[in-house]
């Protein structure tokens, strides 16, 4: 029997591994780890918030701060507020000045195997030249620059160039649609765009510029300048540059050799904005600042990812998401590490592609998502087995819960049973990792992220705010601020307080509690297992999508009267989008309609949000008060036995929907 096809139980995993519930890091790992003493938990607890100087000390400050935390206006916390620094200086210049100019900063590999290598000196040169170009285009301090770019090295160069001149960037994931780009540029009133002609996906060039131009045509205000990177060369789509559009290479030539002094930024000045999905249809502009965010990503890269300047480190995420911001760009570069960037997908040209790159670049630390691991598992261990993965020292995962079986597969087939695994829980809003074992300190328990990191006040509570007993499900909360936290939602302080601080705080008593909207449980050792979102957010392949956003895209399709979207279980993606749709009279629920709905979601958001299944129904299950009972739709999507339906106003629709759904 082909082992790749073996889906039963724990497959080929040895019985010993299958039953083992706790794992220890090897002595070799512990010996070399950046953090290996459990006393760090007490050190942080006893010395809070001053403990966070440890993170700030990883940076070079222009002006030292005098106060670690200012909590005078809760929940608008400020960190290191009177200190000043520049993120680009910290990620680039200081390594050049400290004798590491020839160390590799970025190793880039294109889908077809082209490579580009940037030493810190190369990065310094390009960041300066592009910073000069941005200034020349009129970008001033505090102007938001939108970066709608795929995984090309010009993306981190542009991010750092923005940071250098104090212009916050707002990166929009390249897989998002033209409409999503326009929404984000409008929300931030961003007048500058850096984009790309295209990129490769599974062998084919994609026309990104057409999407960017379409997005631009829907921006409500004047866009002063757009810069277009030429990635495709002769394989491009031949778009002419429009008014106010500039070619990246020509700008760089025009500014060859230019130097721009890094702007001294206040620690609380905005470093970037990142839009993420929430409960309503409108994406939230999460605001991160210069001092706290950079200190926090550097600290967690040091303590959790165990990064050393000599390491070659690879996070396989896309920079268009927070994982890439924090752990491809800012954290690793702040520490002077070599960070790997890969343009393509894991299965092109074949399923060994990632392991080929681990071998080729002798990767020391590898960080990926459970969805990828589940795909590797399905493909089978013969792919990684073909390559020498012995340079790996540490593995990490992020984005969604990892089931113990996938954890153990990763441990055995990628880590050779020698690398600790860090299962890191965090969010766009937290800026960096919050719950994880420290690889040089803690016991690992597959399926559980671990205890809160030192200094992080994470708890699992019931609706009344009391800590739940071990093993009971509750809500994850955080009752102390931390340097990497979001400061607000861009231009919407009210929504910031509503979304994150309302549910579990007791404002009158001065107790402010952050609510990440995840369910969780905790064990006797204080290890936290994340159970998933408790709001209307689905997590598809580790990507966060708002059901409301998808619903409004579907309702925008001609002929659709009403729609409800839920997340259903999916073997590889973790969750997939299931849509239930009521059509207007005169429209039929046929394949053509289904295609139009899927295309509508693709246009409004992007391919990742496309429904896995569309079920047509004359009615949606509603409570007497008229609320759609999503729980039932989830149960139908998962083919589960249905829970209580007695509160339904229209219980008879349920069996109709079930029949329809199973007929898909
Ligand atoms: C949501 C945040 C953090 C970068 C990637 C996603 C889920 C994240 C884990 C984990 C279980 C996880 C949570 C969280 N999540 N990491 N290790 N175990 N769930 O960032 O798009 O802001 O999504 O991802 O539900 O709230 P994001």
TrEMBL record:
Gene3D superfamilies to which the protein is assigned, alphabetical: 3.30.300.30, N-terminal domain of ligase-like
Protein name per the record: Acetate--CoA ligase
Superkingdom of origin: Archaea
Region (Disordered): 642-664
Family to which the UniProt record says this protein belongs: Belongs to the ATP-dependent AMP-binding enzyme family.
PROSITE patterns linked to this entry: AMP_BINDING
Biological processes, Gene Ontology terms: acetyl-CoA biosynthetic process from acetate; carbon fixation by 3-hydroxypropionate cycle
Domain AMP-binding enzyme C-terminal: 549-627
Molecular-function GO terms, alphabetical: 3-hydroxypropionyl-CoA synthetase activity; acetate-CoA ligase activity; AMP binding; ATP binding
Family matches, as NCBIfam families: Ac_CoA_lig_AcsA (TIGR02188), PRK00174.1 (NF001208)
